Amino acid sequence: MKAIFDERQLRHTPERYFRRGAYMPHPEQAERAILIRDMLIKNQFPIEKPRDFGDGPIKAVHDPDYVDFWKDAYQRWRAEAPDQEPIPNCHPGPRRGRPSSSVFGQLGWWATDTSVPLTEGTWDAVYWSAQTALETAERVKEGERMVYGLCRPPGHHALSNASNGFCLFNNAAIAAQSLRTRFGKVAVLDIDTHTGNGTLDIFYDRGDVFVCSLHTDPDLYPTYYLGYEDERGEGEGEGATLNLCLKPGSDTDTILGRFREGLSAITAFGAEALVISLGLDMAADDPLSEVKLTGDGFATMAREIAELGLPTALIQEGGYLGPSLSRNAEIFLTASREALAG
Ligand SMILES: [Zn+2]
């Protein structure tokens, strides 16, 4: 099983995260990807760099103006406010208006929250993270059974026209849209502990991409605003959304039970290809986790995903700097490789 990664994804270097009224060290650090990359090398997964597919496939799921804004947003902010960190503090909310011509207004317009401080290398990092997802999908379209995209920063919270939760470009949605050029019906299964709210939103009215998100109950835990079980899609997408919520404290048996509901639904949908939003932050010792998935639980998920027999793009999402991040990535990916070989 091949892995795709580009070192330019390390260039986003956020320092602080504003949470519940206080700053804390930003959890989404380049070290996450370095740890996983080193694990891939240790386990002899071949690592290849993505080709450059341009911004067209990113704009296939995102507002083109949103994509273009980020290209020089950091430089524009620095020109206006050289000593101040590029973090938005004005947000339009769901109401009429326009982005304005000011970088301060625009940054808030295209951001739902303050979780993506812009840094000098942010554009490079999110662009190559998206290209990594595209290369992963491309390899699957070319006939590889399963490919792992080490995407960083993550993507599944990014809406079509707004950043959210450490995410600017929705790598899983970009991969799913790319897979649609070869496969008629594509499913996204999101096993990150947070709601795949961006992916859900992007495909909510579409019947060709089934989105199942397994996550900690958004009534009690971020991302709060999407991911409730009565949300089932709308219009042509009616029935093509499935949210599976976990109570804080859920153990591995409970998590796997709900995970299997997702697998059954994907089979019933008739998916021809699969994107896994591979968050590792359900681990009990992840700094952001409120559920308790064990290493064996990750291995079971990997095996059961492989047993679906579908062409599969694994797209890295969350998973933070707890003691078991690298180990759980290793468990998941080696179990996937063994299941494919067996
Ligand atoms: Zn997460």
UniProtKB/TrEMBL annotation:
Presence of the UniProt keyword Protein biosynthesis in the record: no
BP GO terms, sorted: epigenetic regulation of gene expression
InterPro entries: HDACs (IPR000286), His_deacetylse_dom (IPR023801), His_deacetylse_dom_sf (IPR037138), Ureohydrolase_dom_sf (IPR023696)
Domain Histone deacetylase: 26-333
Cofactor: Zn(2+)
Pfam families: Hist_deacetyl
One Gene Ontology molecular-function label: metal ion binding
Keywords recorded for this protein, A-Z: Hydrolase, Metal-binding, Zinc
Family: Belongs to the histone deacetylase family.
Protein name: Acetoin utilization deacetylase AcuC
Species this protein is from: Nitratireductor aquibiodomus
